[in-house]
Specification:
It comes from Steinernema glaseri. The chain is mainly alpha-helical and 135 residues long. It has a two-stranded parallel ribbon. Helix 1 packs parallel to helix 3 and helix 4 packs across helix 6. The longest helix has 21 residues. The mean pLDDT is 82.
């Protein structure tokens, strides 16, 4: 996405296709893709749902107002936020370079851990019966 692009259903479907192409290129034997995303309008629009059906991806339900159930929020972005404390950027290029360096420095096991924690997070959410949870 280019800078200041609004995330619409059309833009979202383009991003999903790019992701599908990247998966096909980098993991050609992967056949089952499970996607979790929030309920933002572009993610639940008919165009997006049609694209996901076309791709054959399973979509996990994601309750509204539950960022604690998204691995990106409770695992990835938390560590990214810690690293960003006090950092200032002078350009978009500096941001991109920092992000590439950050992701490149994370061991693969770090991402795996976030995914493996997901069932426990879901279990906690179900057992809390809607009560606010502090991670």
């Amino acid at each position: 996405m280019t800078n200041k692009t609004t995330l619409t259903a059309a833009v979202n479907t383009e991003q999903l296709q790019k992701l599908a192409d990247a998966i096909k290129e980098k993991r050609p034997h992967m056949t089952d893709v499970i996607l979790q995303h929030d309920n933002a309008r572009p993610h639940v629009a008919n165009l997006t749902r049609t694209k996901l059906e076309e791709l054959g991806w399973e979509v996990l339900a994601h309750p509204s107002y539950s960022p604690d159930l998204a691995p990106s929020d409770y695992h990835l972005f938390r560590s990214m936020s810690n690293e960003l404390a006090g950092v200032h950027f002078d350009s978009d290029e500096a941001v991109e370079n920092w992000i590439q360096k950050f992701f490149g420095s994370q061991p693969a096991i770090s991402y795996e851990r976030g995914i493996h924690l997901l069932p426990d997070k879901w279990r906690e959410a179900v057992e809390s019966k809607g009560a606010y949870m502090i991670s």
